């Protein structure tokens, strides 16, 4: 455990601490979905550090303490988290979520994020989406859904997000404080893409609802949008 708080790893420090053998979060008993989500959310960014410290209205301080002192701080301090620490969190999620399979079964990352953010910590939804002019929906992460497209062999995240929003007729109602994106799912038998290139910056200009944008022909403020 590391009760002292450590900042997220950046640049050379991230390479030094996280690269090599016995680094990252140790996997055990189908924990890969949770390990990957926790590493992505906390290793190199502080955007969601409020989950570790803020006394939210419905916040379970025990779960918050395990997340902070047994997982995030050790990851940032030494670059390694023992499987027993993640199992401790999984046991608490099993108790709080009325789901007995959190300690042994593979879950969808969205199910894990919704449970810990909404039911256990009481955080407001991070995303507001609208589809085809219908009522807006609130959620904590966005999973990319799209059909196989032959022209995308090795896509980047920017391309996947834009095409997924287009195919689902989705728009962001407002700029999100944090945009958690789940890549297209794959299994042992089928992978939609063999590789996906991370986009280090994401341009959401064309994904925002009613956002003033430039006309691609004359350069003035656009009044029409063609998909």
From TrEMBL:
Instruction: Provide the species name.
Output: Pteruthius melanotis
**Alphabetical list of SUPFAM superfamilies matching this protein:** Cysteine proteinases (SSF54001)
Coiled-coil intervals in this record?
A: none
Is Plastid tagged as a keyword? no
Q: List the Gene3D superfamilies.
A: Cysteine proteinases
PROSITE patterns, per this entry? USP_1
Q: Which keywords does this chain's UniProt record carry?
A: Cytoplasm, Hydrolase, Microtubule
Q: Which gene encodes it?
A: Cyld_1
Example GO molecular function: cysteine-type deubiquitinase activity
GO CC, sorted alphabetically, is: microtubule; spindle
Q: What are the subcellular locations of this protein?
A: Cytoplasm, Cytoskeleton, Spindle
Name of the molecule in the record = CYLD hydrolase
- The Peptidase C19 ubiquitin carboxyl-terminal hydrolase domain, residue ranges: 24-204
InterPro entries, per the entry? Papain-like_cys_pep_sf, Peptidase_C19_UCH, USP_CS
GO annotation terms (biological process): protein deubiquitination
């Amino acid at each position: 455990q590391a009760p002292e708080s450590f900042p997220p790893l950046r640049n050379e420090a991230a390479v030094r601490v996280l690269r090599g053998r016995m680094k990252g979060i140790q996997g055990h008993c189908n924990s890969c979905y949770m390990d990957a989500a926790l590493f992505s959310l906390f290793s190199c960014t502080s955007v969601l550090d409020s989950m570790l410290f803020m006394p939210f209205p419905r916040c379970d301080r025990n779960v918050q303490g395990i997340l902070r002192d047994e997982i995030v701080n050790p990851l940032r301090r030494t670059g390694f988290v023992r499987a027993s620490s993640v199992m401790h969190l999984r046991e608490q999620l099993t108790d709080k979520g009325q789901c007995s399979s959190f300690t042994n079964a593979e879950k969808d990352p969205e199910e894990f994020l919704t449970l810990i953010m909404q039911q256990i910590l009481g955080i407001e939804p991070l995303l507001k989406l609208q589809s085809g002019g219908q009522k807006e929906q609130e959620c904590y992460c966005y999973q990319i859904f799209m059909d196989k497209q032959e022209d995308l062999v090795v896509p980047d995240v920017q391309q996947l997000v834009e095409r997924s929003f287009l195919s689902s007729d989705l728009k962001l109602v407002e700029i999100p404080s944090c945009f958690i994106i789940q890549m297209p799912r794959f299994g042992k038998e089928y992978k939609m893409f063999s590789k996906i290139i991370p986009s280090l910056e994401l341009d959401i200009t064309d994904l925002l609802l009613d956002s003033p944008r430039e006309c691609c022909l004359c350069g003035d403020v656009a009044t029409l949008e063609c998909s």
